[in-house]
Write a structure and sequence with these properties.
about 260 residues; alpha/beta; Rossmann fold; seven-stranded parallel beta sheet; 9 strands; globular
Length: about 260
């Protein structure tokens, strides 16, 4: 188990949902958490509630993340734990009533979800390599990315989202292999139906229908369960280069 007391951690998309919960569970373990979100007000709200530090950045923009990361390092030090939760999930058919899928929207989803994940990984890993090892095996830190079960069973209207999350899945192993020589692990979580505001704001009958598709437990996952899995990944040094589905055995239907 990694001693997280006074260890710097960075959570992107930490202003809400799974990111906010993950920031909290890391702080409860003693980590000094930097909450990064494109919405600074949301980031500050989370940070204030956990005694953390808030920064704002567009994860898909290199200079934006460089500046935010430097601010984080100046405040709490180089992060040994990095969790990427930032993402967007607009729905659009490839050919819909109004014509073909908007190309700018497709590129935006890829830029935020995939390019943004890689951007944070590359910049954080570059700084993490300079840290001293904290275990007998030479561990310097861990990076946890977020994909989705849509990477495997994308539904109608999810072409952009599924493609972006499929890219995060494919990134996991080569990143872990390359960063292994520095003692940096790379893992990915692929959540299923998690009870975030996007789902919980749907009509009750829609929520019940969706939750009923989960074999067991027959409910939405909780953001806390995502955060708990992040902690287990941090603690278990043999978890590396793999994608873990957090989905109650659901397999998404076409629509």
């Amino acid at each position: 188990m990694m001693d997280l007391n006074d260890v710097a951690a960075l959570v992107t998309g930490g202003g809400s949902g799974m990111g906010a919960v993950t920031a909290r569970v890391l702080a409860e373990r003693g980590a000094r958490v930097v909450v990064l979100d494109v919405n600074l007000e949301n980031a500050q709200h989370t940070a204030e509630s956990i005694g953390g530090f808030a920064v704002s950045a567009d994860v898909s923009n290199g200079p934006s993340v460089e500046a935010a990361l430097q601010s984080a390092i100046d405040e709490v030090g180089v992060p040994r734990v990095v969790v990427s939760c930032a993402g967007i999930a607009p729905a659009s058919r490839i050919v819909g009533r109004d014509g073909p899928h908007d190309l700018d929207l497709y590129q935006q989803v890829i830029n935020v979800n995939l390019v943004g994940t890689f951007n944070v990984l590359r910049l954080a890993a570059a700084r993490m390599t300079g840290l001293d090892p904290v275990s007998d095996s030479g561990s310097r830190g861990v990076i946890v990315n977020t994909a989705s079960v849509a990477a495997y069973e994308g539904q109608i209207g999810q072409a952009a989202y599924s493609a972006s999350k499929g890219g995060v899945v494919a990134l996991t192993l080569p990143a872990a292999r390359e960063l292994a020589r520095f003692g940096i692990r790379v893992m990915t979580i692929a959540p299923g139906l998690i009870g975030t505001p996007m789902l919980l704001n749907m009509p009750d009958e829609v929520q019940q229908s969706l939750a009923g598709q989960v074999p067991f437990p027959q409910r939405f996952g909780e953001p806390q369960e995502y955060g708990q899995l992040v902690l287990h990944i941090v603690d278990n040094e043999m978890l590396n280069g793999e994608v873990i589905r957090l989905d109650g055995a659901i397999r998404l239907q076409p629509k």
